[in-house]
Amino acid sequence: MSRSPSLPDRPRLDLDPDMTPEERLEALRDHFEEIVRVNEQLTDQLDDARGRQTSLTDEVDQLERENEMLKTSSLYIATVEELTDDGVVVKQHGNNQEVLTEVSPSMRESLEAGDRVAINDSFGVKEILDPETDARAQAMQVEASPEVSYEDIGGLEEQIREVREAVEEPLINAEQFHEVGIDPPSGVLLHGPPGTGKTMLAKAVANETDATFIKMAGSELVRKFIGEGARLVRDLFELASERQPAIIFIDEIDAIAAKRTESKTSGDAEVQRTMMQLLSEMDGFDDRGEIRIIAATNRFDMLDRAILRPGRFDRLIEVPNPDVEGRERILEIHTERMNLDSEVDLRALAREADGLSGAELASLATEAGMFAIRDERTTVEQADFRAAREKLDQEEESGSQPVAFA
Ligand SMILES: Nc1ncnc2c1ncn2[C@@H]1O[C@H](COP(=O)(O)OP(=O)(O)OP(=O)(O)O)[C@@H](O)[C@H]1O
């Protein structure tokens, strides 16, 4: 670094008491000139210093920018997998490396499993990322590991077997398909009346395969987020590949994949764009790794056949209302934790419940419990089930929605 030039000496005024007034005046004049000269010299030096200060400030700014760039380029993107007592488990994108890292207590408070974060070389979490994507991700329901298991589903043994074969096997035994030389089914379509357990099936398979369950309702894709549908579909698949193994579950697929109508409203165009995006994501599905896609509909007749072509939703599984054995099993499942009177005959109740869906049977059990509570009993009797059935039938006749009890 160059040294700063030394400052000029301060001018001194030496007045001798023996001086004549003329000599004094002369000395004062000389002193004044000297002061003016030093002042000019100092002003020049100050100008120089200002110039140097400006160029040094520029240099500092430049270095700060470079430093900032170096810092940002060394951050990696990761997803928070789990918050544990020992720290936070993050999975780095790209290499899928999982690490346990520590975060500051304040950051920990705002972190949730599934958040996208920026981590540095030593895996320290530096930032929580992308609120915009997160806002859009709110349209999706993400469960790291749903709690539904196959045992919780009544009367769908055949459907469970088919779903396991079409979804579970390719996830767990991808190698086997490769060796035999066939492609596993691309997408599975569950179709049948409302409340028959389609969502439960999808959740159970995610649970069984330790896959993340990502649900999106077709109706939300096009109703809530007009103009966003196609982008949401892209996000959905992107999120799935970040969180793989993952099961994508698109409920009410008919909302985006209904047969084309003649009308050409802007809403239709939006639906069309969303569906095209879904099809193109599915067509590029082969290289997507451990992601399986399940869709569900209550309106199979309305579907555009384009989505059922090979390589798309090419495995159809019908999920009907339960038969009498199924109904009995569903009642058993939903009354398992209930305090039932020994007289309660679930078989007889199942026989009388012809045409009821799984969801309606679940409501029946809860309503029966409510009747016992109203009567200040802790045991649920056969009569409570009958009263509950009457109430549900009346509600159905009057068109009001039965309460959904999950
Ligand atoms: N087969 C079943 N076994 C046990 N419970 C069931 C069954 N089917 C439905 N239920 C009960 O009904 C609730 C709703 O079921 P689910 O959401 O899986 O139906 P769904 O077929 O996906 O309905 P929707 O078509 O209306 O979306 C479940 O949470 C469960 O309590």
From TrEMBL:
| Coiled-coil zones | 25-73
What top-level branch of life does the organism fall under?
Archaea
Q: Which residues bind ATP?
A: 195-200, 334
Keyword list (alphabetical) reads: ATP-binding, Chaperone, Coiled coil, Cytoplasm, Nucleotide-binding, Proteasome
Which N-terminal residues, if any, form the signal peptide? none
Q: Where is the composition biased (Basic and acidic residues)?
A: 9-21
Span of domain AAA+ ATPase:
184-323
Q: Which residues cross the membrane?
A: none
> Which GO-annotated molecular functions does the record name?
ATP binding; ATP hydrolysis activity
Disordered: where is this region?
1-21, 385-406
* Pfam families in the cross-refs: AAA, AAA_lid_3, Prot_ATP_ID_OB_C
- Record localization: Cytoplasm
Sorted alphabetically, the Gene Ontology BP terms of this entry are: proteasomal protein catabolic process; protein unfolding
| GO cellular component labels | cytoplasm; proteasome-activating nucleotidase complex
In the record, the note on similarity to other proteins reads: Belongs to the AAA ATPase family.
State the function annotated in the UniProt record.
ATPase which is responsible for recognizing, binding, unfolding and translocation of substrate proteins into the archaeal 20S proteasome core particle. Is essential for opening the gate of the 20S proteasome via an interaction with its C-terminus, thereby allowing substrate entry and access to the site of proteolysis. Thus, the C-termini of the proteasomal ATPase function like a 'key in a lock' to induce gate opening and therefore regulate proteolysis.
Domain remarks: Consists of three main regions, an N-terminal coiled-coil domain that may assist in substrate recognition, an interdomain involved in PAN hexamerization, and a C-terminal ATPase domain of the AAA type.
Database matches in NCBIfam families = PRK03992.1, PrtsmActNtasePan2
Q: How does it assemble?
A: Homohexamer. The hexameric complex has a two-ring architecture resembling a top hat that caps the 20S proteasome core at one or both ends. Upon ATP-binding, the C-terminus of PAN interacts with the alpha-rings of the proteasome core by binding to the intersubunit pockets.
The protein in question is named Proteasome-activating nucleotidase
Q: Which organism is it from?
A: Haloarcula nitratireducens
